[in-house]
From TrEMBL:
Annotated ranges, domain DRBM: 10-76
Species in which this protein is naturally found: Sordaria brevicollis
InterPro entries per the UniProt record, alphabetical: dsRBD_dom (IPR014720)
Protein name, entry field: DRBM domain-containing protein
Taxonomy, superkingdom: Eukaryota
Pfam families: dsrm
Length: 93
């Protein structure tokens, strides 16, 4: 899986600005697997942590951030569209 440079990260930041939420905070995580290390990312949006789906080689760390941003944006958009969401009470999450 290959991502365009910061496409999802930019979209997520824009959505946070539109919803007047703090900008997302990215947390890189690693997991030692035999003689190698796998890397992934978690993104915190409005106090909620969303994990990336995949683990990547260290040279593809930005892909991990993009994956986490895509997951967070999808969650944000689905929550904002949901008629039973907290948006009617003034909050996205």
């Amino acid at each position: 899986m290959s991502y365009s440079s910061n496409q999802w990260q930019s979209k997520l930041a824009e959505a946070c600005r539109n919803y007047q939420m703090p900008l997302p905070q990215y947390h890189v995580v690693s997991d030692r697997r035999g003689g190698r290390t796998a890397w992934s990312c978690r993104v915190e949006v409005n106090g909620e942590i969303i994990n990336a789906r995949f683990w990547f080689d260290g040279k593809n760390l930005d892909n991990a951030k993009e994956d986490a941003a895509e997951m967070a944006l999808n969650r944000l958009n689905s929550t904002a569209r949901s008629p039973s969401s907290a948006t009617s009470r003034g909050s996205i999450w």
